Amino acid sequence: MFAGKTVVITGASSGLGAALADGVAKAGGCLALLARNAERLGAVAESCRAAGARVVEVQGDVVDSGACEDLISSALAEFSSIDYLVLNAGVSMWTSFEEIENLSLFSKIMDTNYQGSVNCVYHGLAALKESGGLLVAISSIQGLTGVPSHTGYCASKHALQGFCDSLRIELEGTGVDVLTVLPSWVSGTGLRGRALGAEGEPIGGEAKGHSSSAVPLDRLVAKVLRAMRKRRRRLYVPGYMRIIPLLKALCPCLLDWIIRKKVSR
19 pLDDT exceeds 90? Predict the structure, then answer.
């Protein structure tokens, strides 16, 4: 399904972004990759080339609109079209609101998770309309409900979800579809170690481990690639997470209790 298709991925130097790039490369797709860390990005790009893919790599930050424009223009210059735009770049947090000492934490998270996605869509939408492509936003189940110690992260994912849902309606009839990916906890991404703490810096070795219910990275990648092929509207991982909106509407206190228990573990 990806053979001959061009897939643009942000946050591609590690975690889910790198794993998705590997999956697309092995499925015959062409790749345009963006990440801040040039060395890690180069390693991912070389691995994808070794799998037979044509790859364009752009070092930059989604917070910088110019870097997003460079990514899109580089992809079009090399491949002439863009079939999938995957908004994957993101940063998390792990600290209660009352413990926060540096309010810049909130702007860092919002700038990356929300505004960075807006920047990429702004520059890439015309190309997606030309190809009848698919916009893929890697959101989170936390884009639908609150989670303690994640106030800023939840806010950014709520914003991203609202943006995508509104954009989907605007794009009706253009040939462009919008997929939002809503996973629960995912192991193997390294995201927790890079999560921001009370002082607005990555917590590193202080990160908590995952429980046995966390979704393995390879399982998430397989489900995302399948949802991309089928041009799904929403993807819940695990599937039972689709009950969250229902619980929030009918039994909000029960949902709050469940979430508190999950996070405390």
Answer: yes
Q: Write the pLDDT tens digit of every residue in 207-228.
A: 455 556 789 999 999 999 999 9
- C-beta of residue 23 within 8 angstroms of C-beta of residue 47: no
What pLDDT does residue 205 have?
52
114 as an active site residue: the answer is: no
CATH architecture designation of domain 6-264: 3-Layer(aba) Sandwich (3.40)
Question: Tens digits of per-residue pLDDT, 48-93?
Answer: 999 999 999 999 999 999 999 999 999 999 999 999 999 999 999 9
Pick the catalytic residue from 84, 114, 153, 236. 153
Q: What are phi and psi of 196, to 5 degrees?
A: -85, 140
Query: What is the pTM (predicted TM-score) of this model?
Result: 0.93
Closest CA to 116 of 86, 73, 81: 86
For the chain, the domains span 6-264
3-state helix, strand, coil in the chain (%, to 5): 50, 15, 30
- Give burial (CB, 10 Å; 0-12/13-18/19+) of 167: middle
pLDDT higher than 90, residue 199: no
Q: Which long-range contacts (CB under 8 A, 24 or more apart) does 168-176 make?
A: 168/233, 171/129, 174/129, 174/132, 175/129, 175/132, 175/133, 176/125, 176/128, 176/129, 176/132, 176/133, 176/134, 176/135
Give the C-alpha separation, 21 to 43, whole Å: 12
What does the block give as tokens for 11?
Answer: 């946050």
First CA to last CA distance, the chain = 40
| Least trusted range by pLDDT, from 9-18, 44-53, 182-191 | 182-191
